[in-house]
Amino acid sequence: MKKILRYTLAIVLLLYFLATFIVSPILDKRMNLVEYSDPRQLGTEAKELYNSLEFIADLHCDALLWDRDLTKQLDYAHLDFPRMQQANMSLQAFTIVTKSPKGQNFKQNSADAFDEITMLNFVQGRLPDKWFSLYKRAEYQARALQDYQKKFAGKFLLVKSRQDLKKLIALKKTDPEVIGGFLGIEGAHCLEGNLDNVQNLYYEGVRMMAPTHFFDNELGGSAHGITGEGLTDFGREVIHEMNRLGIIIDLAHVSPKMIDEILDQTTRPVLVSHTGVKGTKDSPRNISDHHINRIAASGGLIGIGFFRGAIKGEIKHIVEAMKYVRDMVGIEHVALGSDFDGAATTPIDVTGLPFIVQELMDQGFSEMEIRAIMGENVKRFLMEHLP
Q1: Do the beta carbons of residue 87 and residue 353 sit within 8 Å?
Q2: Where are the transmembrane segments (predicted)?
C-alpha cells in the first residue's frame, strides 16, 4: 500500500512539473500574440514626443492570470516589468480573471460551460483551493501583485490610494525606472454571492471591478451571456458597496441593459477598461453611441482596446476608435485599454506604445490630446476617485 501511495505521489508530482514548466508557457505563447501587417515607421517627432510623456497609463492587462515572473523579461506575450520600464510606463491596471467558459465567444456563453481557468490553474501548478474557489483565485492573483513590491527591488509600487499615486508620480520624476500597478477584477462572480467579499477584496488592494465577464452571474447579465438581463438585487447591493468603498465600476463586458441600470444607480463616475465602439466596428463586444454619451456624462473614461474584436486589427483602427469617442464626447474621456495578455492578439506589445503616438499624430491629434490619451486622463481620474 505504501508503495502504491509513493508511486501515486511521484506521478502527481511529475504531472505538476510537466504542466508548470512545459504546458503553461506553451499556452501563454499561443494565446497572447503580437501580429500585424501594416507597415510602420517611428519618426523623430513622434519619438521625441513619446519620450517627453510624463505619465503613461493603461487600464487593462491580464498578466496575473499566467504563470510568469513579471520581474523577468520574456520574448513572448505582451507585458512584463522590464518591458514596462523600456516603454517608460507609469501605471498599469492588472486585472484578475477567475473564470472563462470553454468555447468563449463574443455572442453567447453559458455560465455552466466547462471552466477553462480551472484547468489553467491545474497546469500552472497552483494548489487545489484555486481549482475550486473563484474567490481564492482572485485572492491569489491580488497577493501575487502585492508581493512584487518586495521582489522588484523597490522599483514597483502597488497603487491603492491617491497618496500612493502621488508617491508614484514623485518617484517617477527622479527615477524613470519606477513603475506602478493597480488591481482590478474582471467579473464579480469571484465574490461567490457573498457581499462581504467586496470588502475583503478591497483589503487585498482591489480598486476596480467589472460586474460581469463573458457570462451571466449573480449580479446580472453579460454582454456575451444568455439572458441580457440587468442588475439583480444582489447586483444592486454590490454596486452600492463599491460606491461606499470607492471601488471603481468597470462596465467592460456588461449587458446593455445592465449598463443603463448601473448608470442610473451609481453615485460615482464609471469607466470601461477595455472596449471598442460600435461606430467603428459593430460587435457585441463594443459599446454603443448611447452608452458612450452616458459614460461621458458621468465623468467616466473609455479605454480603447488593442485586440481583434474591439478593433479590426491594426494600430490605425485603435486610433480610429479613439477619434470616434473624442469627436462624440471629448478627448477627456479617452484612454488606453489594451487588454494585454488577455488571451488576445494585438498589433503591439507594451514596447510598441510609441507607434500609437505616431498614429495619433498621423491622424491629426494635437500634442495635448496625445498626452491626455496616453495617460493624463487616467491620472486625473484616479486622483479624483481613488480612496
Answers
A1: yes
A2: 7-27
